[in-house]
Amino acid sequence: MSMQDSAALNARYGIPEHLSFKDAPGGLVVAEVSNAHATASIAVQGAHLMSWAPKDALPVIWLSKDAKLAPGKSIRGGVPICWPWFGPHATEAKFPGHGFARTVPWDVVDTQKLGNGATRLVFRIVHSDATRAQWPHPSELEIHMVVGPTLEIDLVTRNTSSAAITVGDALHTYFEVGDVRQAKVHGLDGCPYIDKVDGGARKQQSGSVTIAGEVDRIYLNSTADCIIDDPVLKRRIRIAKQGSASSVVWNPWIEKAEKMGDLGKDGYLHMLCVESTNADTDVASIAPGGEHHLWVRYSVEALS
Asked: Which domain holds residue 26?
């Protein structure tokens, strides 16, 4: 179904007083969820979740106030999908960093109101001559989202070809924090990491991760929950995952944020990316007919 047709999407997939599709500025269509547990918004282009907030609570997912919504452009903030590679393409420098999934059309394929009052949405990527030129391997990509008291996201890659494929991917999630300088990330103690700010030097994490400058790190052997302690907003964000043995922690800090142009004034102080990934050596090899799930669950706890 056309991503541009909000009326047709509402007729087929809308759920009265629960889920509706609306035309957003810039020509994109956005799914708006409001149920007993939470609110959320998802751009159909890129199947890009832009916001999620439990009822009567502050937003958990950060979206830049200067985010641009435009066809073919990535949205600054939310949960961009990196696929089918993470970082620069291995051989083609002109191919987009982190792949094309976040900037191409997706189809809505299912919506449901679940028995507990949560909302389930399923999107499937639309392949084209342009995407096949960059990724010639027959495959399907879906994302399943459950918007409730927690947010669950399952990124599913199916190999429909006759040969094995290797995929890198990520849920490049921007979390909202009160002041990134006071936040701490737990769950990575002892993990080796690649420090991209320091020329790709190999290091090892000791204790919790704190942010006092630009941070861009790929943590390996990372399977435990990551937890963002936020003393300013008095909460803890828990990131549980499966199908991923690497995590990325990223904040561009002042200089890079200014050059980006869409992060907003002082935006870097209020966002922290903790990404569940298949990155660097942690890639997913998928046999013919097989599938890979990158699954996460985000939840919020009071900071005691």
From this structure: 6-302
275 classed as catalytic: yes
Q: How many domains does the chain have?
A: 1
Q: Strand 19-23's sheet: what is its strand order?
A: 19-23, 29-34, 38-43, 48-54
pTM greater than the 0.85 cutoff: yes
Condensed to tens digits (0 to 9), the pLDDT of residues 212-247 reads 999 999 999 999 999 999 999 999 999 999 999 999
**CATH code for the domain in which residue 117 is found:** 2.70.98.10
Provide the sign of the torsion angle of the four alpha carbons 218, 64, 145, 208, taken in this order: positive
Residue 134: which residues within 8 A CB-CB, separation 6 or more? 89, 92, 95, 99, 100
Which member of 37, 48, 172, 292 is catalytic?
A: 172
For the chain, residues with pLDDT lower than 50 are: 1-2
- 172 carries an active-site annotation: yes
